[in-house]
């Protein structure tokens, strides 16, 4: 029945709305919906031509009931096409919004190879250093304010158009942030209650340099630091506020 495939797509979008990651792009469902919409478009054109032909040949014999039947057929066909279009747009809009949300959290997306390497490294007991070579995308967000946010994006789950959109939006955001070098536009919107806080290290992470000096991220150690210096580390799961 027309509309069933679009309904499956909407159900998939509804399930993924509150997930912390973007699921696999439903290319098969989308192709089926596009195919169905094209078929409906052909049906609409055929019905319009048939109605016009009947009017030209038997304009006097057409009853009001025949007119209503013809108009109803065309209306239902166009309505089904419109519904398919709205379902497709809603699905794409939801995923685009989640990509925008993810970009503002300032995390790097991961690919399948990155994820497998991270899993292998964890199994081998390797530790990640705190230098510039660490990959923030392999670090889960632990802060409770990010529970309802999109904190993980696998590039393999995105379509080619979505990958291009993500890259272009990241470039746009970097360019926009460069106009405000003294402001962390992607930081927490909640104002801090204290400038300095006590934190506990959840896992080893190497040396961290701040304006007030440097300290080593050694598991279970505690520090009294400025919140703005370690806010990103808290978000990345290295530290927790005591």
Automatic annotation (TrEMBL):
<dbReference type="InterPro" id="IPR005339">
    <property type="entry name" value="GINS_Psf1"/>
</dbReference>
<dbReference type="InterPro" id="IPR056783">
    <property type="entry name" value="PSF1_C"/>
</dbReference>
<dbReference type="Pfam" id="PF24997">
    <property type="entry name" value="PSF1_C"/>
</dbReference>
<feature type="compositionally biased region" description="Low complexity">
    <location>
        <begin position="116"/>
        <end position="127"/>
    </location>
</feature>
<dbReference type="GO" id="GO:1902983">
    <property type="term" value="P:DNA strand elongation involved in mitotic DNA replication"/>
</dbReference>
<dbReference type="GO" id="GO:0000811">
    <property type="term" value="C:GINS complex"/>
</dbReference>
<feature type="domain" description="GINS subunit">
    <location>
        <begin position="48"/>
        <end position="179"/>
    </location>
</feature>
<feature type="region of interest" description="Disordered">
    <location>
        <begin position="114"/>
        <end position="140"/>
    </location>
</feature>
<keyword id="KW-0539">Nucleus</keyword>
<feature type="domain" description="DNA replication complex GINS protein PSF1 C-terminal">
    <location>
        <begin position="195"/>
        <end position="242"/>
    </location>
</feature>
<dbReference type="Pfam" id="PF05916">
    <property type="entry name" value="Sld5"/>
</dbReference>
<protein>
    <recommendedName>
        <fullName>DNA replication complex GINS protein PSF1</fullName>
    </recommendedName>
</protein>
<comment type="function">
    <text>Required for correct functioning of the GINS complex, a complex that plays an essential role in the initiation of DNA replication, and progression of DNA replication forks. GINS complex seems to bind preferentially to single-stranded DNA.</text>
</comment>
<comment type="subunit">
    <text>Component of the GINS complex.</text>
</comment>
<dbReference type="InterPro" id="IPR021151">
    <property type="entry name" value="GINS_A"/>
</dbReference>
<keyword id="KW-0235">DNA replication</keyword>
<comment type="similarity">
    <text>Belongs to the GINS1/PSF1 family.</text>
</comment>
């Amino acid at each position: 029945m027309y509309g069933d495939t679009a309904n499956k797509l909407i159900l998939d979008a509804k399930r993924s709305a509150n997930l912390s990651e973007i699921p696999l792009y439903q290319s098969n469902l989308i192709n089926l919906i596009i195919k169905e919409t094209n078929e409906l478009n052909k049906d609409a054109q055929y019905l319009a031509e048939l109605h016009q032909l009947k009017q030209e040949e038997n304009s006097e014999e057409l009853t009001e009931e025949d007119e209503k039947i013809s108009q109803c057929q065309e209306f239902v066909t166009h309505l089904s096409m419109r519904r398919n279009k709205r379902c497709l747009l809603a699905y794409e809009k939801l995923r685009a919004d989640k990509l925008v949300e993810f970009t503002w959290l300032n995390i790097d997306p991961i690919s399948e190879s990155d994820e497998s390497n991270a899993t292998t490294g964890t199994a081998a007991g390797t530790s990640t250093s705190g230098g510039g070579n660490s990959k923030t995308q392999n670090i889960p967000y632990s802060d409770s304010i990010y529970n309802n946010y999109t904190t993980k994006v696998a590039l393999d789950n995105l379509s080619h158009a979505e990958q291009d959109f993500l890259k272009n939006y990241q470039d746009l955001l970097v360019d926009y942030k460069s106009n405000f070098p003294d402001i962390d536009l992607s930081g927490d919107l909640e104002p801090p209650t204290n400038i300095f806080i006590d934190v506990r290290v959840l896992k080893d992470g190497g040396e961290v340099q701040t304006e007030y000096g440097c300290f080593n991220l050694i598991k279970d150690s505690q520090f009294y630091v400025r919140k703005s210096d370690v806010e990103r580390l808290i978000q990345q799961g290295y530290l927790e506020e005591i």
